[in-house]
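Ops channel
N.P.: pipeline sanity check, posting one input/output pair.
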């Protein structure tokens, strides 16, 4: 179609050899496809061919593109929003930890770009979600990461989408994009790509690493120094020499293992350039341009290196600093970019030379240096060689001498992919039991036959700890695995197993349903079962949150145990909760003190902690919502109210003990004492002048007082009306009216790292016993009024026996309690 051709007119005149070979299958058929090709082969364009086919043949259906990292999702979203979607008039939604679109957007969209976790979460309840059942194409980017940490999730999604297709009798096309694979046939079998007469299959394309459109010249250098830091230091001079030899005047990416190494490496390259009497050789800017750029740079180390034409790029930089550096590098204003490995996945930067300075990184969990996955090294190498500019690319890989032969072999051999599903089988089996797909042991066995793990165990049994390939041995091995998995889930309180004669019935329990719905580990559910109790204090509630398994992976980097201990002392000095400083190297300890520092508004020791706090906050809301569900089911009001209070504290970044007016900007503790309560301020703000006058009295200048008044006028003012429903005994109608309703407004939570919608908990409980009769969560969306129906057999007209609580999930100080 001309409309499709126009998307590529400015980029190239013809497809490269790989794209040409796959064109017919992707664009003219609906066959499942597995494409293995080196990085830099134009695989994204291949995926677009399959997307165009779906637009042509299945209008109105949905396409899902799954990328294994948030950075890759963002790159795709940015590219397609400005290109493909804009020109073809298609709608796109992003589904990541940062964005959870509403149901209307998901139903109306054509293209969903998602991380594996998010799509796994929504597709678990596929039978009740129309938008999941209307998917006609799923594209898996970097499907060879099946063997990595998050591989099991990709494996489960592929298996589930094939299962959905079978159950709904609709075709769901699967397209997998990968680097060159050693065992592509197994992957193809699992994806439902049948063999042809030659044993290949029309949808299977597996190109060797050597067929790259831009050839790659690779140099592997060994360094013998035994210890990590001295070894890194000896690599800096050869790195500078490699730039001089291979990439004079052309862009260079230097990959290092840590944020600290970006600074050290850049400064050493500058030292060598100065010694060479060519200090500004990597800078392509006039002095006045450079001055303008430096004014906008926040990070001092980056400001220094940019003066010599070298940029830094890592997650510790502010978003604005990163955007400036990316722009300078892409426009060739600076020649060298020293970055951490995350950039290899997140940005499609063209470069001529890639230097990989060391192939290990410090693993905080293991407390030692470990090797990068070979997939990461291949991805870094793949950035070298720009299709529009270079006839070849160059990669220089600097490794520890003993590993030199390993890299020589594996960088040129196709990549073998194994499954790691067995390590986390409990969570995925629990999800299937909770959704009703699995109800006995035979169902679990049937579920396993859909997986890649099942294919590989037959091909490579020793890798999975199986001695023989005899059918009965494999069956026994799988049977034992299922037995152990179900036992773990039963011990954690997620499922119950009932033996009915020869049959074993499996039933999902509350903890199992909650952990599946909120996408939590079964171990976290077990923690809830053990720790949540009727009289749980706020501090205990907070400690359960911090102990969740979702924080097991929080990095405690080199020397951060000392920083954690210092931060703990500051937190306790500022009136925070006690912590045991001996645990300062524990990830959960770090989460605890970071949250308390966030409530106390203490400065964080290093910029890394700001990002770590953001990541911890990202997870916190669903963990607490799950805790609320568990406590509600038991009928316990105290832990529910403490969870809601904790939600408010996390949303506002403040202690509940402070005046709620301190969540407003510019308002100090001293000023807050001179102000009325927050509900009164919100009420006054209906009359702007009156509110402004009141706020000025606390000592704020007019401009700031006006800003505070404006925020007060946007906060929710709820009018709660209760009536008996249709005159029935035990049935209540609660009407919530927002007096100052404004359409399309988000919650005011400036310290929370994501855009937040406000929600309310409506709780009906016994006055004397604090037992919950009913709890409902409501949102106004784009309405000013919400009706909630509550059923409660104990509401029989005698006042004072029951109370109604209306609690915000975002704001401190705006909750209401009414006696009935």
């Amino acid at each position: 179609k001309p409309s499709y051709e126009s998307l590529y007119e400015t980029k190239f005149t013809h497809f490269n050899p790989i794209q040409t070979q796959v064109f017919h299958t992707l664009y003219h058929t609906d066959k499942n496809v597995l494409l293995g090709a080196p990085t830099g082969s134009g695989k994204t364009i291949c995926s677009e061919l399959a997307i165009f086919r779906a637009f042509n043949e299945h209008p109105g259906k949905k396409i899902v593109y799954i990328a294994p990292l948030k950075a890759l999702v963002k790159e795709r979203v940015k590219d397609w929003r400005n290109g493909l979607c804009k020109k073809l008039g298609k709608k796109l939604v992003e589904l990541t930890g940062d964005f959870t679109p509403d149901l209307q957007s998901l139903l109306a969209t054509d293209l969903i770009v998602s991380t594996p976790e998010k799509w796994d979460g929504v597709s678990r309840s596929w039978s009740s979600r129309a938008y999941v059942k209307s998917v006609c194409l799923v594209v898996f980017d970097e499907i060879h990461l099946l063997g990595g940490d998050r591989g099991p999730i990709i494996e489960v999604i592929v298996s589930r989408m094939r299962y959905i297709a079978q159950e709904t009798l609709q075709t769901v096309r699967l397209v997998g994009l990968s680097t060159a694979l050693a065992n592509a046939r197994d992957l193809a079998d699992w994806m439902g790509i049948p063999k042809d007469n030659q044993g290949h299959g029309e949808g299977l394309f597996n190109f060797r690493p050597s067929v790259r459109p831009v050839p790659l010249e690779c140099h592997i250098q060994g360094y013998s120094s035994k210890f990590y830091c001295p070894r890194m230091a000896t690599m800096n001079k050869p790195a500078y020499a490699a730039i001089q030899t291979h990439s004079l005047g052309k862009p260079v990416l230097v990959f290092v293992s840590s944020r600290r190494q970006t600074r050290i490496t850049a400064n050493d390259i500058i030292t060598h350039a100065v010694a060479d009497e060519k200090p500004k050789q990597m800078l392509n800017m006039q002095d006045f341009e450079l001055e303008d750029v430096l004014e906008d740079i926040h990070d001092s180390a980056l400001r220094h290196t940019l003066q010599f034409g070298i940029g830094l790029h890592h997650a510790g930089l502010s978003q604005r600093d990163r955007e400036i550096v990316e722009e300078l590098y892409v426009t060739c204003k600076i020649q060298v970019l020293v970055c951490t490995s995350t950039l290899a996945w997140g940005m499609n930067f063209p470069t001529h030379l890639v230097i990989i300075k060391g192939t290990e990184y410090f693993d905080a969990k293991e407390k030692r240096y470990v090797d990068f996955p070979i997939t990461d090294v291949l991805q870094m190498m793949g950035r070298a060689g720009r299709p529009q500019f270079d006839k070849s690319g160059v990669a220089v890989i600097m490794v520890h001498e003993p590993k030199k032969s390993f890299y020589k072999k594996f960088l040129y051999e196709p990549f073998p992919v194994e499954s790691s599903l067995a390590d986390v089988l409990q969570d995925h089996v629990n999800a299937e039991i909770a959704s009703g797909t699995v109800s006995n042991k035979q169902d679990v066995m049937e579920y396993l036959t859909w997986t890649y793990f099942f294919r590989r165990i037959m091909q490579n049994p020793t890798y999975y700890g199986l001695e023989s390939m005899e059918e009965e041995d494999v069956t026994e091995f799988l049977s034992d695995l299922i037995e152990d998995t179900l036992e773990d889930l039963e011990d954690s309180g997620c499922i119950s197993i009932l033996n009915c004669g020869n049959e074993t019935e499996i039933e999902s329990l509350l903890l199992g349903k909650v952990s599946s719905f909120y996408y939590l580990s079964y171990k976290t559910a077990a923690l809830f079962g053990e720790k949540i109790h009727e009289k749980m204090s706020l501090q205990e509630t907070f400690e359960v949150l911090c102990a969740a398994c979702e924080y097991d992976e929080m990095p405690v980097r080199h020397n951060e145990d000392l920083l954690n201990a210092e931060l703990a002392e500051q937190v306790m000095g500022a009136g925070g909760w006690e912590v045991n400083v001996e645990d300062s190297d524990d990830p959960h300890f770090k989460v605890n003190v970071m949250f308390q520092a966030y409530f106390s508004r203490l400065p964080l020791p290093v910029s890394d902690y700001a990002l770590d706090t953001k990541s911890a906050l990202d997870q916190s809301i669903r963990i607490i919502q799950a805790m609320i569900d568990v406590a509600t089911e038991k009928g316990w009001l105290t832990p529910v109210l403490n969870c809601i209070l904790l939600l408010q504290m996390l949303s506002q970044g403040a202690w509940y003990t402070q005046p709620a007016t301190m969540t407003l900007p510019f308002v100090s503790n001293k000023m807050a004492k001179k102000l009325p309560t927050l509900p009164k301020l919100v009420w006054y703000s209906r009359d702007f002048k009156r509110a402004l006058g009141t706020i000025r009295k606390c000592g704020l200048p007019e401009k700031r007082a006006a800003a505070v008044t404006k925020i007060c006028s946007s906060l929710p003012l709820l009018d709660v009306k209760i009536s008996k429903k249709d005159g029935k005994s035990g049935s209540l109608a609660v009407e919530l009216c927002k007096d100052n309703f404004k359409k399309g407004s988000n919650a005011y939570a400036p310290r929370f790292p994501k855009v937040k919608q406000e929600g309310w908990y409506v709780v009906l409980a016994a006055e004397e016993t604090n037992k919950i009769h009913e709890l409902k969560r409501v949102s106004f969306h784009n309405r000013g009024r919400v009706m909630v129906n509550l059923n409660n057999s104990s509401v029989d007209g005698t006042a004072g026996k029951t109370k109604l609580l209306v609690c915000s999930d975002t704001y401190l100080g705006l909750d209401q309690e009414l006696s009935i």
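N.P.: looks fine end to end. The chain is about 45% helix and 15% strand.
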